[in-house]
Description:
Blueprint: H1 2-17, E1 24-28, E2 34-38, H2 49-56, E3 61-65, E4 75-76
Antiparallel strand pairs: 1-2, 1-3, 2-4
Amino acid sequence: MRTLSMAAAALVIGLFSQGASAACYVVYAADQTVVYRAPEPPVDLSRPLHETLAEVAPGGSLVFSLDDYGCEVEVHKLPQAPQAGQPKTR
Length: 90
């Protein structure tokens, strides 16, 4: 039974991994206020989130959903991430 469950989970992951995308991205600051909400990701998702999100929202968290409810009102309060070659300020 466990093998069947694992095979089913692998199939679901395989089906959705290629075309998976979120409809809404929300970033919460360390104090749990919403600092970003939009259909576009706030950071480069090809890199690990613990690296990229910490650059734009230290102590924050990213939540993404397939549902776009609430995303029609965008919020853009993130500070700009440092550009390549520029030193990070703290």
